[in-house]
Write a structure and sequence with these properties.
Elements (H helix, E strand, L loop, with lengths): L1 H17 L9 E7 L2 E4 L15 E4 L4 E3 L8 H10 L5 E5 L2 H8 L9 H6 L5 E2 L7 H10 L5 E4 L3 E6 L2 H23 L14
Parallel strand pairs: 6-7
Antiparallel strand pairs: 1-2, 1-5, 2-3, 3-4, 5-8, 7-8
This protein binds zinc ion (ZN).
Length: about 200
C-alpha cells in the first residue's frame, strides 16, 4: 500500500505541473498512511521529477519518520487538516492561476458546471497568511470543515478527498470552472445553471 501511495503522489505532482497548476518547485500533496503516519512531498525539489523514494513519511506532530529529504514547508497545514477532518485521507495544495486570479479581482467562483455544483457549491476565500505559517494551517483547518476546497488569497488552493485522485479532480475542476468564468467574463459574464437544476 505504501509503495502504491508513494507512486500516486509522484503521479499527482507530475500531473499538476503538466496542467500548469504548480510551478517547478511549488505545491505539495500528502496522503494519510495510518492513524499517525502521513506521506508528504518533499520541499524544494522539482515536483514533476519526483521519485517515490523522495516522498517523506511524517507523524501527526510533523516529525520525520523516514526519508532523506525535508518534508514540505506546508506540513503543518496538512496535519492541521487531517486533525480537523478524520474523513479526509488526501490533500493537495496547488497554485491554480485562474482560480487565484479571479479571486484577486474580487470575484467569486460560481459553480457554472455540474461537476462544480456537486463538488463545491461555495468555495471559501481565506484571507492572506504567510505560506508555511501556523496561522495559515489553523485558518485552513477551521474553514475546510464542511468543504472539499478553499482558496488562499494571493496564494493558491487547498483541496481534500478520500483519495488523492479525488483531491486532484477537485483542484482541476476548480481551475476548469475558473477558466470558464474568465472566458465568459471577457465576453460579457457567465450564465449560471438554471435554478430548477440547482437544488440539493
Ligand atoms: Zn503554496
Amino acid at each position: 500500500m505504501e509503495e502504491f501511495l508513494r507512486k500516486e503522489l509522484v503521479k499527482c505532482m507530475k500531473y499538476l505541473h503538466t496542467k500548469g497548476l504548480i510551478s517547478g518547485i511549488g505545491g505539495n500533496a500528502s496522503v494519510r498512511l495510518s492513524e499517525n503516519e502521513v506521506l508528504i512531498t518533499p520541499s524544494g525539489l522539482l515536483k514533476a521529477e519526483l521519485h517515490p523514494s523522495d516522498i517523506v513519511k511524517i507523524d501527526m506532530n510533523g516529525n520525520v519518520l523516514s526519508g532523506f529529504l525535508k518534508p514540505s514547508r506546508e506540513g503543518k497545514l496538512h496535519i492541521a487538516i487531517y486533525r480537523a477532518r478524520p474523513d479526509v485521507s488526501a490533500i493537495i495544495h496547488a497554485h491554480n492561476p485562474f482560480t487565484v486570479g479571479i479571486t484577486l479581482a474580487g470575484k467569486k467562483i460560481e459553480p457554472v458546471n455540474y461537476e462544480a455544483w456537486t463538488m463545491f457549491k461555495d468555495v471559501p476565500i481565506l484571507e492572506f497568511k504567510l505560506p508555511g505559517s501556523e496561522d495559515l494551517a489553523n485558518l485552513v483547518a477551521q474553514n475546510i470543515k464542511s468543504n472539499s476546497a478553499v482558496i488562499l488569497q494571493n496564494h493558491g488552493v487547498v483541496t481534500v478527498g478520500k483519495t488523492l485522485m479525488e483531491a486532484l479532480y477537485i483542484a482541476e475542476t476548480l481551475e476548469e470552472v475558473s477558466t470558464m468564468i474568465f472566458v465568459a467574463s471577457c465576453l460579457g459574464g457567465a450564465k449560471l445553471i438554471p435554478r430548477e437544476y440547482m437544488k440539493d
